[in-house]
């Protein structure tokens, strides 16, 4: 039996508890308004380019709302933000030895 119509299951690693705790101390809630997140961590992007980067998948961050209205405020869940931070940190760790092994001219 084929399940070709099912979306791909994307399981992210569980974020470090310390990352979640620090984010909670910074933002004070489990739902982080996108604008606060952009100002804190994505200062290099304006509002429109930040949304574009999320929608294109370049910034892999699920967005949620508490209402079905198009004008409803948009949030990122603290666990998703923590996972994004941890994944980027682990990626940087894995790339660091390769950068040091490359010969300099």
Question: What can you tell me about this protein's structure?
Answer:
Helix 1 (17-27) packs across helix 4 (78-101). It is built from four helices and two strands; from the N terminus they run H-E-H-H-E-H. With 105 residues, the chain is mostly helical. The longest helix has 24 residues, at 78-101.
Number of helices: 4
Enumerate the spans where pLDDT stays under 50 for 5 or more consecutive residues: none
Record field, number of beta strands: 2
Rounded to the nearest angstrom, the distance between the terminal CA atoms is 56 Å
Strand coverage percent: 5-15%
The main sheet orders its strands as 1-2
Radius of gyration: 17 Å
Features:
105 residues; mainly alpha; two-stranded antiparallel sheet; 2 strands; 50% helix
What's the layout of helices and strands?
Blueprint: H1 17-27, E1 31-33, H2 34-41, H3 47-56, E2 75-77, H4 78-101
Antiparallel strand pairs: 1-2
Task: Give the gist of this structure.
With 105 residues, the chain is mainly alpha-helical. Helices cover 50% and strands 6% of the residues. The chain is globular and about 55 Å long.
